[in-house]
Amino acid sequence: MKTFFISIITLLFFSAELKAEVVTGTFQTEKSDEGNYLHVKFGACSKDKSKTCGTINGSFTSNGSKNKNSKITGQLIVWDMISKGDGQYANGKIWDPSSNNDDGSKKIYNSKMSLSGNTLSVSGCILIFCKAQNWTKVN
């Protein structure tokens, strides 16, 4: 009987450890040089619920009005982020919609994130070239 309870407690402990932390909510990106910014809605990825993905939920101009002509709304900007625990995420990808490769293809970086309170620190690198931003939770 004692072995049975120890087995149950061990199973519960490891089950809690295996439960993935997924970032949820909408975050505002830092403003571009022109003052434009995005709202990115985070949640579980559709193909793998243990990973975090972020979709562009809105594109805004420098005066705060919604850019109704934006072609990037609804597109994935962050995907396949794996929780490492304690608000740390890694092994994901991030797309930089502000610049494309010379051939017109999307510029995609290897990415990691860190969540602390209402701030999501996002960074991405291609080889040794890295970019980073702090995004603020808006809801």
Describe the structure.
With 139 residues, the chain is mainly β. The chain has one domain (20-137): Lipocalin (Beta Barrel). 12% of the residues lie in helices and 53% in strands. The chain contains 1 helix and 8 strands; from the N terminus they run H-E-E-E-E-E-E-E-E. It has one helix at 2-18, and strands at 25-28, 37-44, 51-60, 76-85, 88-100, 106-116, 119-126, 129-137. Strands 1-2-3-4-5-6-7-8 form an 8-stranded antiparallel beta barrel. The longest helix is centred in the N-terminal third of the chain and has 17 residues, at 2-18. The chain is globular, with a radius of gyration of 18 Å. It starts with a helix and ends with a strand.
What tags apply to this protein structure?
eight-stranded antiparallel barrel; 53% strand; 139 residues; mainly beta; Lipocalin; 12% helix; globular; single chain; 1 helix; 8 strands
